Amino acid sequence: MNIRRATPFALLASAFLLVACENKITMENYNAITTGMTEREVEKIMGGKGEEQVISGVSIGSGGLTSTTSGTGKDKVYIWKKDNAGEITVTFRDGKVIDKGKSGL
After folding, report:
1. For 5-11, which contacts have Cβ atoms below 8 Å and span 24 or more sequence positions?
2. How many domains in the chain?
3. How far apart are CA 65 and CA 93, in angstroms?
4. Which of 7, 76, 84, 103 is the most exposed place for a label (fewest CB within 10 A)?
5. Rounded CA gap, 22 and 26, in Å?
6. Does some domain include residue 91?
């Protein structure tokens, strides 16, 4: 391959890698996430899908027995984190943001 042909390709590949490595765990991105946004809109801000968290808890029935429930609600919780850069957690109900949280920002 000719060096003149390879140079634009190398520059494009380098630019792509820089964008892919960009830290999306920022206060700016956290503040950009608002109630009512869709999962797709949040994924666009955050640069992709977060890691889905399993929601579980304990319930007490009328007989006084406790049981553990897991993932039975309509809510989905996703977390985005990067090394020591902090994390952003977003809760969706019916595909729309109902809550968000942050840590280490």
Report:
1. none
2. 1
3. 28
4. 84
5. 10
6. yes
